[in-house]
Amino acid sequence: MFGGGSIQLARVFGIRIGVDPSWFLILFVIIWSLSGYYGDIFPGEEGKSYALAAASGLLFFLCILLHELGHAVVAKRNGIGIIGIDLWALGGVAKMEKDTDSPGLEFRVAAAGPLVTLAIAAAGFGAGMLVAGVGHTLEAGSFDLQGGDSGGSEEVLAVLGYLTFINAVLLVFNLIPAFPLDGGRIARSIAWKLTGDRTRATRIAARLGRGFSFVMVGAGIFLVFQDQVFSGIWLAVVGVFLGQAARSAELQSKFTSRIEGVRVSDVMDAQPVALPAELPLDRALDEFFLRYRYPWFPVVDACGRLTGLVVREAVEGVPDAARAGRTVASVMAADPDSGSSGLRVGVEEPLEDVLGLDGLTRLGAIMAVDPDGRLRGIVTMDQVRRALAPEPALEG
Question: What is the pTM of this model?
């Protein structure tokens, strides 16, 4: 759902940071809404109001990014690769290469984001109190400056007040025990620990998510009839999305339960066709691409270790006269040893881990390697589909 059409902004700790096109629209809406909020605080100063609104909108998404980085860093430290983080219309998402494999790890990854948000809210409140002075309070998103010298800039206090308030709201919202929110994932980890069954725990958490989605949609409709149209529509849209995501998670749990205990080695093609890295390009074209008609091949070194991937277009892009003097290694796309590229998976990894790899959808296959990085097989999309397909019912 995310990542394929996003625009990369940067890399943080080796993690790709991108934005979905919908992010630009919601950023505009937030800035427009906040300009009115700051206009009430600083009446008659439209330029200042728009500048503060723009700064607050960007800082708001920076807080969301830090929240998602909390999830990502904890996941990476526990051996789970991160494909990337995308910001989009309804917040952010950190996409992991595979699901967690224990209740404890699920709890730690899920709790990391809210802990970051809590730290941001606490830091904003503390900074605001230091600037405003002891005795001032945070009211409806802004520090109350009545009754004395603020001791600092009112503009800074206004932004700190907004960030403190909005992060407190995000913290409460994310801790709602509704999958796939962080609170729902924490609930799943607890159910998983109590039942010993991840699939059953996922179904429990997903049903909680669907229940809360109905409540949110109903609350959104109520707000619309109370003339709070923007807030009502926003809440209803979030509720619909939450319900759809929970339903998808429940369906996915049914699929993955069919392949519990199945390893990559159980379904892979154990005789993959690979190109030696030092093979001349003219032979690669004649002996492999024209013979097998495949759009790409894995590339291995002299010891059989996976080093990259070569596509036919890259070979044909080299002039005919130069192909004999160039090797496959000179035009291949290198694959790093880490699994973050989404092109490789260990032969003894659960087949379920393959489902979250970017290469499966992008290439239609994943390379299976042993602990030394040697290519041992290929898992295709068709093989995964067959493994996920329900067994035919017996007649008679």
Answer: 0.71
